[in-house]
Design goal:
The chain is α/β, with parallel strands linked by helices and 193 residues long. It is built from six helices and nine strands, in the order αβαβααββαβαββββ.
Length: 193
Amino acid sequence: MNDEVFSRKQNVPMTKEEIRYIALGYLDIVSGKKLLDIGSGTGSISLEAAHLNLSMKIKAIETSEEAFKLSLLNLEGLDCQKKKLKERVEFINDKAPSSRITETFDRIFIGGTKGDPSSVIKWAYELMDQNGVLVMNFITIENFTKSMEYIKNHDGFEKPEGSLVNINKLTDIGPYTYLKPNNPTFIIKTTKK
């Protein structure tokens, strides 16, 4: 899905389309049954996952009320009867970790932690099925470093793999074209032993 299909606001983060493709690939989203999207922002990961896997159930949690409302707007705007998004995708306005989510998931995506990745990863681990896949995106070095350290020191996770992705988009500048850079993004994948 192109970024343009999502309603956006400047202060609400969104996982950009090329990063979504990589993250959803790492999640092996087409083989998954249940996805938890933590720090869902505009809901772009949840909604694209729902479009790619028509049987997947998705819960998404976002602490920002403005982002939560934007997620609902995107759900409304992208829903079509054939894909039954409203029946399969639930957005929750709450801070992770949350007592409102207690079931388990075979896929978990972390797009935001509000600066506390260790407690969010710990909570995600408790909600993961055995052999469940965890994928995380970070744009800050600090959260990437804390997350890698936590995963490497946790006996319940497999050795992480990942990438640093730098995307530049063709953009017009007068009669010329240049490559406008997006934020570099760290992507980490691990599984629960």
